[in-house]
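Can anyone check this?
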Amino acid sequence: MRVNPVAVTLVASMVAMQSASARDIDITSQPFMRAALTVMTFDYFAAKCEQRGGFKPDDAGKIAVWEKTNGVAQIRARLSDFERHPTEKRQLEQALAIITNKVEEQSNSIDTCQAALSLSGLPEAQFAKISPEILAPVSNPPQNRQETVKPPASRNAIAPSGVNSQTVAQIHSFGFNTRPKIGIGGFVALDIYPIVLFRNGEVLTDVEGLSFNGGLTAHKRANPKDWTRWRNQGGKLQIATKDGWENLPFQTTYGKLPDNFKLDGLFRSLSGTGTVAIGGSQSVAVWQDYRFSPDGRVVRGRGAGGQSEFGDSSVVTSNIVPNQRGRYRIQGLTLNITYDDGSQERRILITDPKDPKSAIWLDGISYVRRKQ
């Protein structure tokens, strides 16, 4: 198979134009940014492979299956949309440059065909499994979109949350459950994680589903294993498991956070993606953070950084978006932020109000408290 990324992108763009509903996907979200970087890196290696004669037939077949299964053409079709998001476009270009510069320096010793094939097999490249929402062509009606005030001219405005007041109204409370996990040295430990109890008796066990692009109903269809039932039996909260009803290990749940509740400290969400080991290793990280003060002030930041290592050499780069500053207040389960530039943000906030140093979840995305 001879891969021509430019031609593929043009064809995919024409297909995407026929499906306007797919344009609802937020390309500046972390899942899509990771997927975009992975596809861009694959296309780079594939183009280099093309120059050397192309993929072997068996490898070409594997790549074709990967592309079809994971909506690679759909992702390619959106890459041109980053022209309207210069900050994110620059982040992707700088991250890709970390990898490509090193490949150019060692072009004679790198099998770019194998690199492209290996990249397509990475867990981070299985978009349909890890981030199905970025491939779902959805179009929410205006009344279901997040209320927001957009500044007339703010290039770095933070995209508002997709969670709306209708979702908040469906929530009965949130709580915490436990599950076993393998710790350091192979020892079994308990992982404490949040769950959301809904008024209709359902339970969401993976709170990232709160930010699913298609909404809760679409998430339930795509991820039924993340949903179960709850009940109050004899004064005990129980959830349904494959072995029957079981008491929640933590019986306290929160229908709202305490009045005048404040956050204090720096909370960061970190995610990343990697490429194959081709004479070394490459990695790219994307982070978002909030620095909350008890007086109601908040500073939001985000950025991207990457590292490429070959032998004893290492290249590190980063790009940090200017901070947004504003004020926040917590009402019930909702974190409301009004930034100084006039933009607003509303997110569902989950945290343990008894532990001021615990992590927070914003629309189901975890943010870990950091010292700096």
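Reply from J.R.: I decoded it. The two ends are 49 Å apart (CA to CA).
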